[in-house]
Amino acid sequence: MPSAYELTKEELAEQLSGEPRYRVDQVWHGLWNEAQELGQITTIPKALRASLSERFPSSLSVANDVHSDRGMTRKWVFRLFDGATIETVLMAYEDRVTVCVSSQAGCGVGCTFCATGQAGFTRHLSVGEVIEQVLFAAREAAPRRLSNVVFMGMGEPLENYRVTVDVVKRLHEYRGLSARHLTVSTVGVAPAIERLAKEGLPLTLAVSLHAANNETRSQLIPLNRRYPLERLHEACANWIATTSRRLSFEWALIDGVNDTNKAMHELARYAEPLRAHVNLIPLNPTPGYLVLGSSAQRVREFHDGLVELGVNVTVRNTRGRSIDAACGQLASVTNARRRSIPVRSA
Ligand code: SAH
Ligand code: SF4
Known about the structure:
- The protein is an alpha/beta fold.
- The chain is built from 11 helices and 12 strands.
- Helix 5 crosses helix 6 (161-175) and helix 7 (190-199) runs parallel beside helix 9 (229-243).
- S-adenosyl-L-homocysteine binds next to strand 8 and strand 10.
């Protein structure tokens, strides 16, 4: 069954062809501006509400709902129509409220350190299934306004390319989110980065680097064998030249694997010509990868070393560790360590 968020405004108008024209605006406003479910849009008659809810049921049913960080982080596990499950995480900060969405159920890339990668690929999500995660979170965040969307939940957004592009366009046009507030994280699908650059979309690109030598990176990220670091560098340079935007590198610090001084120098050499911003995050432990994240002290040293090498770097605070949020890849993306404010809990 289709989701109401699958529809463009013209398609919605077709669905409401027997109704007065202003109904289209009312429903549209309810769905997109107010983040309401069809059944909650009280500006339209009850019978219409009921028939629309029946024709366009919600794609997401809550299978689990957990909190951590004193209510500042919430995670939902949603069951989809076919039984596939995905995770969505809401994080509240002093200056913003961010939702981390899944783009696929599972992921086929198979990064060794990632819980989603360890579980394998189930299927791509539809436009409606991704957008509903955003609007669900927006409802739960009220009265605060959901300000940021990051594609850092389950899945590789650039492997579900058309859906990712379509979702970004709609969130921009219909929710008014722009590049500073929309971040797509990719493992580094080089040709898709170049294709995305040409779309002219308002988004920030984060590339999951994690290692700047091919041997280590291929061990962590099997896709590196297909698009090795040299090819990825080309794609990143192309992104910057085409979009005039900066990009960031994600680096999950893994004890003894990519937190050595050698790794630090490799990273600095890789990031410097691109003037990329580096986000460090200690690895979240996962059952299938028995290696530890770096100690707090090593994270600090690695950070300070990069600063000395002239790299623009921040340490991201990890959210939701105790609730295994998403791949454990919790995202604050822009800057770290700010005071947080609880997200209302239902
Ligand atoms: N597939 C995309 C987006 C989803 S993963 C990508 O890989 O970028 C989002 C981020 O979480 C990535 O930077 C990923 O490397 C990171 N991540 C995955 N597992 C993690 C873990 N156990 N600890 C810390 N970060 C992790
Ligand atoms: Fe997929 Fe990203 Fe996890 Fe790698 S880190 S397996 S690309 S979700």
